[in-house]
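Page 47, continued from p. 46.
Same chain as before, 292 aa.
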Amino acid sequence: MKNNIFSNFKFKLEFILVYLIHLLLNYLPSTFASILGGFLFKIIGPFTKTHKIVKKNLFKILPNEKNSNINKLARESWVNVGKTFFELLILPKIINNSKINFEGTECLNLIKKNNEKVIFIGIHQSNWEILLPSIDTLGLPVGGIYRHINNPYINKLILDIRNKSILTNKSFYTPKGKKSAKDIIEGIKKDISIVLLIDQRDSAGELVNFFDYPTKTQIGFIKIARKHNLKIVPVENTRNNKDIFTLKFYPPIGNFEKSLSDVEIMKQIHNIIEQWIKKYPSNYFLQHNRFN
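Result:
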């Protein structure tokens, strides 16, 4: 009983802090909010236990890199995480302020013209939160999965912010779990495309090489693509100068050869996203234990 009371009190204090930051950031220019978040996390991040995970991940991604540059990239990665967190708290402002450029939209025009539904795949790079609402602004209704935050008050606040960043009535967010699986299939039946971040470790997934390390990987979306005859569209997300973003849509992956297994297709996808990460390693979310 005491533990529950203490946990609830702690959750409320955390929520009040995050909510006050949310209110403050809404009065600031979005660029300044990004800079502020990056500055604070760059100071605090290296003193946390998570910093060791960041450096370990960098050594696996860039095994031949000098230790001095690994340390530099590790500090820079905290800047991106800080910017992303503060930007999430003002996500509708980020989406509406024309801070996002698009490349490779030819394939999107074909998707709209042919009234197709697809699976957009991205990774936790740059600000990954912009992916779903940005595609929504292009007139393509999409559904996406989010990971539930342990603090229920903060979880509700963040979900409200995400929903406010969506323009169309069809697009949606669904919490990871049994409900998300049901919602995604229902969305496909209603001609809604899917947005997935496919780079996190999945303890129930298959072992697929990621930077030459066998890593538990989710491949369920490939099974869905096969079953519903959906193309897979990789989307690279880059943070540029002055925190302007570029979303680059790659040619669709589709018409999967039956001779190729799901794992073999996932290896091809890993080859694509590994190149994205190597280009901008500090813009990748290195703060989680991606490798087994």
